[in-house]
């Protein structure tokens, strides 16, 4: 597979070569690479990306879903510049009003959130959620689902994209490390569960209940494979019974499936929720929110002064350590609040979902017209194209699809001005137009034609 070899991306190729001399692999996150070289982008505007060769793309990567308002939305721009102009600096390193305003907003929107703390990324948010679960229960281990991603750190870099030869039985998956350099400790202390298999999940949870502090999951795996309602209801019931903290990782699904995330759609209250991406309006952020009794562990004795200032000392034990120079960054919170404000305007989310549905439907028709077995899979404003049949309910089903053909089509799409990283999912923004959809569908038609030589 040669990937994208094109006369029109020569500057990208040259700049990437230069990058490789000083940056390992030429990329700042491994996921950004594709053959033979990724495209170097220069500018984003609305639903479009422009590369260094001046090529224009309709952007469906949207920074892995973060840019729900597209590139450079004027409301975000205004909020950020106002914040910076008026405050004279970007960060105070002190408490400030907007931290409370955003927390109140999240509490209003997310059924499982009663209190909030901020971090700088989704990764830090899930890490803090897990630490809170361990602190709250006094137990040591964490369970996660096979195929679920929660950020690039040791404890959860297990069985995200495992090789089937090493992954064991479907109903009792084995922990497989995703990186060199992971201490064995995490393989031994992370319990792996099969997504959407309630019976097997319940059995594993009961076997490990005495040592499990929490279960973390993406309620919609990868933003595209939903948990069954029965599975979710069952999981909530069992975790409650066994005193296992239920953590929803809504870094991807937050604000994208509904303003209240997946939990609002399922009608399920997780104990702790991790947020990120859209929350920062295009800037780096993360947050956790959850039950007051769990969140309050962070305040127990964070500093002795907190006690005399009247904060509740809930358990007289040492506090949970949570810090971060840039936590609650005012500029980023301003961008996030402006983003939520736009999304809350009457009809905005409905229109976004309707456009996504329209694109999915038209893409399905195009693939079908070439006799290809294809389905779109997803919810709300995220979906992916699966070249394969059957009901896909977890990582193992997903790994059966025809990724070779999909990749070939994706490389052609890049030449035709439709951007997503090959094989990546599609995220939509509120500024993608019907004209964009029209052009995207036509590009798929042409790409398939080229690949099939028709
Ligand atoms: N959890 C999920 C579900 C994610 O999709 C991501 C990012 N792709 C993360 C956690 C990590 O977030 P970040 O990249 O901001 O650290």
UniProtKB/TrEMBL annotation:
| The protein's required cofactors | pyridoxal 5'-phosphate
- The answer, when asked if Metal-binding is one of the entry's keywords, is no
Gene3D superfamilies xrefs: Aspartate Aminotransferase, domain 1 (3.90.1150.10), Type I PLP-dependent aspartate aminotransferase-like (Major domain) (3.40.640.10)
Listed A to Z, the keywords are: Pyridoxal phosphate
Q: Which InterPro entries match?
A: Aminotrans_3, Aminotrans_3_PPA_site, PyrdxlP-dep_Trfase, PyrdxlP-dep_Trfase_major, PyrdxlP-dep_Trfase_small
Specify the domain of life of the species encoding this protein. Answer: Bacteria
- Give yes or no: UniProt keyword Kinase: no
What is the annotated signal peptide range for this record?
Answer: none
What family does the database annotate? Answer: Belongs to the class-III pyridoxal-phosphate-dependent aminotransferase family.
- Protein name per its UniProtKB record: Glutamate-1-semialdehyde 2,1-aminomutase
Lineage, please? Bacteria, Bacillati, Bacillota, Bacilli, Bacillales
